[in-house]
Amino acid sequence: MTDSHSAPHGNGGAAATEHSILSLDDGDLHVCLDGPRDAPALLLIHGTASSTRSWDALVPLLTSSHRVIRIDLLGHGRSAKPDDRSYALPDQAHRVGVALDRLRVEHAVVVGHSSGGVVSVALAEQRPDLVTALVLVNTGPSLDAFIPSPSSSSGFSQWPPTDEQLLGFASTGFSRAGYRIPPDLLDDVRRMTPHSLTATMQATRAHLEQRALPDRLAALGTPLLVIFGADDRRWRSSSAADYRVVPGARVELLPGLGHSPILEDPARTATPLLAFAAVHAVPAD
Fold first, then answer.
1. What band does 35 get if pLDDT is binned at 50, 70 and 90?
2. Alpha helix stretches (DSSP H) within the chain
3. What is the tens place of the pLDDT at every residue in 39-53?
């Protein structure tokens, strides 16, 4: 079952975002659609404690040439947040695949930010027919690349967290001088439940412990672009080179940007993304 409505897009009202709620067996998923219906599909998957809104600044740069699809993963944004469902990354990827089937999307270039990139790889493993190419934005290749910090823990002393706690949690996600964290992103954390946040973080760690992403991707053969803010404070940017074991992989480092280039400088992020997608996108039927 799908309920749809339109709302103004965050680009001054020049376009409209279509919002849908897809009812899946284990919970409702919120979906956003932008751009021409007959354009090649570009799927954007957010990271942990984020939502479709993390892509708001980037979307207007993509819609002239793509049908842009965004999905709130289970436990995030406006999607359901059940305590009795799995948050394992393969299960999240499966839900995304079901959602694309419901939307009658047969092929897509898939872009994942941070842990959303791990979900994207899992989707490519499950549905190589669906994923024509992958773009990973500041997605750590393995746990060896992780930079521990007190803010990387989800152990908030209260729920919902205070503004001070949220700013500490989010601070390592950005590095550009003078960048101010949008309040909407802090609200995305508040809208989660303690269970969905903790379970999602644990699931990402467990998935990376099983097998590093470059090893998974080398066996897939899916075209790959890796974009990495060179000043990432959550994952060592030098680890982006680990993806070069994937045949044909392209790695783009963005100096002066941190873990969230999609927010810190959308235009610089869009440039390599669009060039890559132009080569690998499949026209809609």
1. very high
2. 89-102, 115-126, 163-170, 183-190, 194-210, 213-220, 261-264, 266-280
3. 999 999 999 999 999
CA dist 196 and 158 (Å) reads: 15
Measured CA to CA, the distance from residue 31 to residue 99 in angstroms comes to 8
| pLDDT tens per residue, range 194-219 | 999 999 999 999 999 999 999 999 99
CA separation for the pair 38, 211 (Å, rounded): 37
| 24 bridge partner residues | 27
Q: Residue 133 gets which letter from DSSP?
A: E
79: three-class secondary structure by DSSP: coil
pLDDT at 262 over 90: yes
pLDDT tens figures, 163-181:
888 988 899 999 998 899 9
27 beta partners: 24
Measured between alpha carbons, how far is 164 from 150 in angstroms, rounded to an integer?
Answer: 13
Look at strands 131-137 and 27-34 and give their pairing.
unpaired
Our CA dihedral for 32, 28, 185, 145, rounded to 10 degrees, sits at -100
Contacts of 25 (CB under 8 A, 6+ apart): none
